[in-house]
Design goal:
The protein is an alpha/beta fold. It has twelve helices and ten strands. The strands form two sheets. Strands 3-6-7-5-8-4-9-10 form an eight-stranded mixed beta sheet, with helices on both faces. It has a two-stranded antiparallel ribbon with strand order 1-2. The longest helix is centred in the N-terminal third of the chain and has 20 residues, at 83-102.
């Protein structure tokens, strides 16, 4: 009798071991409980709700930008025959071709040092991209140390972008919409611990959700200068490429090479934009009216 009980216990242990193996789970279909009849009901998985980007864009607060303010800051919301505006439009076309060829959309615009005109290029490029009918472009001020886009665009009621990046404020509470094709994420004040904020998983998740909700063709991030801080490197998981703006009157070749070494193996350098150059032949290339 004792041997029979021992054998039974061994068989039971053997059966248990064969049914439940470490590291493996038994798959069951989704299940709910019918509280009325006391039985289990197996249902198909629920399909995740898809946001309608058009409705998200409509939820953004429209903003009116002063043409006088924009012109005073060297910005071109409308087509222009000025050489700087034509150069920006050429950059727009080159950028779109490059992004389409690679399937990219998230671009950081930075410079080697302060004062090279990166915000000027980023804003004018965003305005140029947004002039295309039916397009969607997003411009976000991620120069958290010295935010400049709100002043450049003349937006007096900007919010704290840090609250958005942390997830404390939703997209529609912070972003503005210029026309129907340009979403603006401008910032009211510097954000403490800028690099740490950009390193945060909350920031990466927030920016990924923003791209999904707005579904823009191009996202431009105005970033701090690349040399001297790790802000741009902190953003690389949320970027497809970098556009480097250099000052033709002061940026040295060594500074450009330092940026190239910094980006190498970490983030693709899409191109270098030479700002503040004198092109005496520019007027000869003007054709027709803008």
């Amino acid at each position: 009798m004792t041997e029979d009980k021992s054998a039974s216990r061994q068989m039971a242990r053997g059966a248990t071991a064969s049914l439940f193996r470490p590291g493996r789970t038994v798959a069951h279909p989704p299940m709910t409980l019918d509280l009325v009849k006391g039985r289990e009901i197996f249902t198909a998985p629920l399909t995740p709700l898809r946001l309608n980007p058009a409705k998200v864009w409509e939820s953004l607060t429209p903003v009116q930008l002063s043409a006088e303010k924009l012109a005073g800051n060297g910005l071109f919301p409308l087509p222009s025959n000025q050489p700087a505006a034509l150069a920006i439009d050429q950059l727009r076309s080159k950028l779109l071709h490059g992004l389409a060829a690679r399937g990219w959309k998230r671009i950081a615009i930075t410079s080697p040092t302060h004062g090279c005109g990166k915000s000027f290029v980023a804003t004018n490029l965003a305005l140029s991209l947004a002039r295309r009918p039916g397009s969607r472009t997003a411009l976000i001020d991620l120069d958290l140390r010295q935010p400049h886009l709100a002043d450049l665009l003349g937006i007096a009621d900007a919010h704290d972008l840090g609250d958005f990046l942390s997830g404390a404020q939703p997209l529609e509470s912070v972003f503005r919409r210029f026309g129907r094709t340009l979403a603006l994420g401008v910032n009211r004040a510097p954000v403490g611990m800028a690099a740490e904020t950009l390193h945060s998983p909350d920031t990466a998740e927030t920016l990924a959700a923003m791209v999904e909700q707005l579904d823009p063709e191009v996202v431009l991030y105005d970033m701090p200068p690349a040399l001297g801080t790790d802000d741009v490197l902190a953003m690389t998981p949320s970027l497809d490429a970098v556009l480097l703006v250099v000052d033709g009157t002061k940026t040295s070749p060594d500074e450009v090479r330092a940026c190239e070494r910094l980006f190498e193996g970490r983030i693709p350098l899409l191109g270098v934009v030479l700002n503040r150059t004198q092109d005496r032949a520019a007027q000869r290339h003007i054709y027709g009216k803008a």
